[in-house]
């Protein structure tokens, strides 16, 4: 036998009223199996109604906090023997006006590496097709982002060429620029980087074998 499942508040109340009358009629009599099933359904209806503030079927509450998935790109290039890193200036809070690595949310249907490449292209205007990227690490320390629980996967790549490609700021970047690593190190020491991007930059430089000043 298929058990009837009331779906609306009206159906719950109608079922409860019918079953209450049925149980009263069966009082002091042998209760057949069908009625025992009805009593079980009544108990279920009462439980649902008791836990729903507006009479509608209660929905189980998920009290877990969301975790956001992001990716960042650390791009190095060398000009006249001087190592540079590609940075943006954040256009809005949190950390408006501070330096940051190109990066952002991982979209549905893409990997974190694809997201890092896409975000770097959107925020700096540089084409990164065919440039190999290496995994730097996963950054998931609680509190690293004031907007919530963010987990970021960072990648790095080294661009070749005699001249630095000219970046053009886009998306949420107010500016995009190549900064000499010596200047970036100074900014990092004085707290000029957003989030934990100074630490990501340092890790990427070690991975790439580039000495930090």
Mean pLDDT, to the nearest integer, reads 82
Biggest beta-sheet profile: 7 strands, mixed
CATH architecture of the largest domain: Alpha-Beta Complex
Q: Look at the helices and sheets and give the structural class.
A: alpha+beta
Question: Quaternary status of these chains?
Answer: single chain
Percent in helix: 25-40%
Poorly predicted runs are none
Radius of gyration: 30 Å
How many separate helices? 5
Order of helices and strands: HHEEEEHEEEHH
CATH superfamily annotation of the largest domain: Nucleoside Triphosphate Pyrophosphohydrolase
Description of the structure:
The protein folds into 2 domains: 9-51, no CATH class; 67-208, Nucleoside Triphosphate Pyrophosphohydrolase. It is 33% helix and 24% strand. It is built from 5 helices and 7 strands, in the order ααββββαβββαα. It has helices spanning 9-25, 33-51, 112-124, 181-189, 197-208, and strands spanning 67-79, 82-90, 99-100, 103-105, 134-139, 149-159, 173-180. Strands 1, 2, 3, 4, 5, 6 and 7 form a 7-stranded mixed beta sheet that branches.
Top keywords for this entry?
alpha+beta; 213 residues; globular; 7-stranded mixed β-sheet; 24% strand; Nucleoside Triphosphate Pyrophosphohydrolase
């Amino acid at each position: 036998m298929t058990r009837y499942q009331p779906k609306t508040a009206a159906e719950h109340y109608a079922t409860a009223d019918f079953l209450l009358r049925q149980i009263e009629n069966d009082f002091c009599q042998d209760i057949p199996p069908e009625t025992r099933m009805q009593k079980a359904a009544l108990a279920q209806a009462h439980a649902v109604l008791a836990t729903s503030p507006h009479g509608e079927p209660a929905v189980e509450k998920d009290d877990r906090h969301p975790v956001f998935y992001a990716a960042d790109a650390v791009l190095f290039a060398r000009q006249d023997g001087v190592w540079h890193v590609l940075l943006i200036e954040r256009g809005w809070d949190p950390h408006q006006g501070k330096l940051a690595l190109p990066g952002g949310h991982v979209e549905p249907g893409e990997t974190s590496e694809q997201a890092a490449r896409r975000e770097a292209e959107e925020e700096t205007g540089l084409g990164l097709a065919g440039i190999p990227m290496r995994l730097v690490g996963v950054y998931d320390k609680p509190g690293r982002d004031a907007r919530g629980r963010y987990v970021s996967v960072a990648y790095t790549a080294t661009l070749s060429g005699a001249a630095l490609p000219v970046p053009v700021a886009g998306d949420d970047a107010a500016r995009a620029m190549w900064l000499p690593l010596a200047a970036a190190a100074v900014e990092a020491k004085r707290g000029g980087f957003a989030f934990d991007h100074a630490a990501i930059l340092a890790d990427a430089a070690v991975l790439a074998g580039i000495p930090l000043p």
